[in-house]
Amino acid sequence: MTASSQPFGTRLARAIEERGRFCVGIDPHAALLQEWGLGDDVASLERFALTVVEAVAPVVGVVKPQSAFYERFGSRGIAVLERVVAESRAAGALVLMDAKRGDIGSTSQAYADAYLDPSSPLASDALTASPFLGFGSLDPMLDACRRHGAGLFVLALTSNKEGPEVQHARTAARTVAATVLDHLRAANAGALPVGSFGAVVGATIGATEEDLDINGPLLMPGFGAQGGTTADLERILGAAARWALPSSSREVLRAGPDVTALRDAALRGTEAVQGLGA
Ligand SMILES: O=c1ccn([C@@H]2O[C@H](COP(=O)(O)O)[C@@H](O)[C@H]2O)c(=O)[nH]1
């Protein structure tokens, strides 16, 4: 795979324009494998994941495989994840790898090599990252994105109920989340039509006083199975709705294993959020 000649933000803007802003998570939960009448083994993982790719990757702009569900099967699970990445991209979807990586800088460099360097078998269009070792520890990932035309989505206000304990904590007058958003705004300064450095902002967080206008995309998991609705998205986003990417995994995946039913579920999600940012 070669480096993309265009920044991730530019590619994402085109994907949204052509296919809408809804992101489908490819999360092969053990419970979903069972609901689909499959076993809890690698062959079933592969059948599940590639069925979802076949159904949704030709119609949505972004897919988001959750690495943990593949990692639990060891190297053969990772091999399935590699196919999910390759086949989704071949079908025209951008792949946002949800692995939430973050470590000291020298190790962040290795994560950048693994997920953002086009010569890696797991190279994706974008990666989720955790800034809680200090935003600067992610610099190797930001640099790799700039070099290779990839994107990064950094946790800011997550959808889980435990997140506020850390993210609403204050250093001087700023919350931790505000500091993360400030860094992203600086990294995206001047980018057109939008920067490549996004924030993860849960669809479940309720109204927020944080400034979400970072000139970058906002990945919004928690839409659907975790209870987030279109009205919640509107309440949270206000004027920052233009680059929102609402994301749903289980709510779409439960429509399977029928390919048409899965695709219809993805298209319903796309339609539900198409008015955002209008
Ligand atoms: O704040 C966050 C960050 C990431 N996630 C991930 O998104 C999906 C949500 O799946 P659903 O089935 O739609 O609930 C999952 O992969 C999480 O790890 C999140 O939920 N919240």
Automatic annotation (TrEMBL):
Protein name per its UniProtKB record: Orotidine 5'-phosphate decarboxylase
InterPro entries linked to this entry: Aldolase_TIM (IPR013785), OMPdecase_type-2 (IPR011995), OMPdeCOase_dom (IPR001754), RibuloseP-bd_barrel (IPR011060)
Family named by the database record: Belongs to the OMP decarboxylase family. Type 2 subfamily.
SMART domains: OMPdecase
Recorded metabolic or biological pathway in which this protein acts: Pyrimidine metabolism; UMP biosynthesis via de novo pathway; UMP from orotate: step 2/2
SUPFAM superfamilies referenced in this protein's UniProt entry, alphabetically: Ribulose-phoshate binding barrel
UniProt catalytic activity: orotidine 5'-phosphate + H(+) = UMP + CO2
NCBIfam families in the record: pyrF_sub2 (TIGR02127)
Alphabetical keyword list: Decarboxylase, Lyase, Pyrimidine biosynthesis
Active site: 100
EC number in record: 4.1.1.23
Domain (Orotidine 5'-phosphate decarboxylase) ranges: 21-265
Gene3D superfamilies: Aldolase class I (3.20.20.70)
GO MF terms held by the record: orotidine-5'-phosphate decarboxylase activity
